[in-house]
Amino acid sequence: MEGAIHPTDGSAFRDCLSLARKNPYVLRLAFSAGIGGLLFGYDTGVISGALLYIRDDFKSVDKKTVLQESIVSMAVAGAIIGAAIGGWLNDRYGRRTAILIADFLFFVGAVIMAAAHNPALLIVGRVFVGLGVGMASMTAPLYISEASPAKVRGALVSTNGFLITGGQFLSYLINLAFTKAPGTWRWMLGVAGIPALVQFILMLMLPESPRWLYRKGRDEEAKTILRKIYPAEEVESEIQALKESVETEIQEKGSSEKINLVKLLQTKTVRRGLMAGVGLQVFQQFVGINTVMYYSPTIVQLAGFASNQTALLLSLVTAGLNACGSIVSIYFIDRTGRKKLLVISLCGVMISLGVLSAVFHETTTHSPAVSVAETDHFGAYTCPDYRSAGSSGAYWDCMKCLKASSPDCGFCASPIYKLFPGACLISNDTVKDTCRKDHRLWYTRGCPSKYGWLALIGLALYIIFFSPGMGTVPWIVNSEIYPLRFRGVCGGIAATANWISNLIVAQSFLSLTQVIGTSWTFLIFGVISVVALFFVLIFVPETKGLPIEEVEKMLEKRALQFKFWQKRPKPEQKGQSV
What we know:
Layout: H1 12-22, H2 24-57, H3 59-63, H4 65-93, H5 95-115, H6 119-146, H7 153-177, H8 184-190, H9 193-204, H10 210-215, H11 219-229, H12 232-251, H13 261-266, H14 268-286, H15 289-302, H16 308-336, H17 338-365, H18 372-376, H19 384-388, H20 398-402, E1 409-412, E2 423-426, H21 429-437, E3 442-443, H22 452-471, H23 473-480, H24 487-515, H25 518-539, H26 548-557
Antiparallel strand pairs: 1-2, 1-3
Helix pairs in contact: 1-2, 2-6, 2-7, 2-8, 2-9, 2-15, 4-5, 4-6, 4-24, 5-6, 5-8, 5-9, 6-7, 6-23, 6-24, 7-16, 7-23, 11-12, 14-23, 14-24, 14-25, 14-26, 15-16, 16-17, 16-22, 17-22, 17-25, 24-25
Protein name: Inositol transporter 2
Membrane topology: Multi-pass membrane protein
Keywords: Membrane, Symport, Transmembrane, Transmembrane helix, Transport
């Protein structure tokens, strides 16, 4: 990264394919480290399906929305701590060591979750997994970035994003595979330990980041690795540029002092880099992506699809689209540029969230009515709140039935057609089975709707636009925007901000849908997307094809290139000769 400027007019995707033939060692480094992204993605996706069956096994979880949110978000809380510690670990002990520790924690967490006999132990396992995911989330792209030739850096870091989405897709396949197996969710969560073990073994056989080694004075080790990464004609210029970069840092006033927040904020380039990097990570979460990934099957049920298996199968489509979007990102990231991808991505996300908000508004305001005759058919199972409503019960519909809380009630659809008036009954396993024996559908999360397929189209559009841009670009920008001396700490700060934002969204989504409704919840995410678009236009620089020195100059001068669609004049060809 510290070396010469490489031409980016051609496709870095083709360069990656060429690299695979000429130097497979680089791809081996990238994909081995990228398994950290697979772990990240698997954990994000697997809990969405496992939660459906955890609710069935633990009635306390089914009855308490807060407990469901806690099972999801405690992994995020662990990831916050993991990302914060990960920044320090990366700078002190190296990128490779941080990944090994992350794998160990993830494996331990997977074993605890699979063996959990109560919600409390399950939450403990989620915290361990979160610690591992947090470390891996900021270390994997950093390791790949520092072990990649500059001209394919973006594409190779994008492989980490692809493996994140690939992990999410894999998790839905695993969820579907174990829906009929005894101990469903235990298998879903326990299988996560396998990729962690595989990466641990692979990383034991791989070297440390050459740039971290050089920074620590282990010059010969760094040079040996760089000679394996770069073509022979580029090695010496890369070594020279890296040497100059480290020497410049050593000459800085206070370079021997410990890095602290005050030191970071006093450095103009770091301060502006953090504003862009942290801002992108925060907005990545606040536009709602992990509500879709953590709660995708639940959202599908809210849209009117009753069965767990159907919800998981339809959620698999969104996970597949997410993985495809990451492949698109690999192709376009070094061809189109980071900023343009972000702008296109956010424009599509705004439209998609608008569609989802409108669809859920129609779904909740046009739900099937509750029929006295249909309800009386089940006799003693009638919902107490509906019975006590008397004549006003004539105005009850499915949504009103599902909001009853003393006790909880469910909607048993008409056997003729699910949109016809149905029955409002007590919600328990006996009533659910009785309803289904009559060839009826049983609803407790959402109501039957003719607009359900539009909600799926909205979700699909959201993923199609989010994945290639906001899904991968924030991680790429954060892997290349900071000076080498501060890169580990700054990357840790940005990753921590991402996980804190993730925690806020994960812990509040179900509660928001209950308090203000699903439609307004998605509308709020849409408004945040508008704010994110203006943030990108104003604060995020285009870093495509630039070495770190040139990115620093851009931040120093605040040359943020508002007209991002225009080609930049080529900077001076610094560092092309030794």
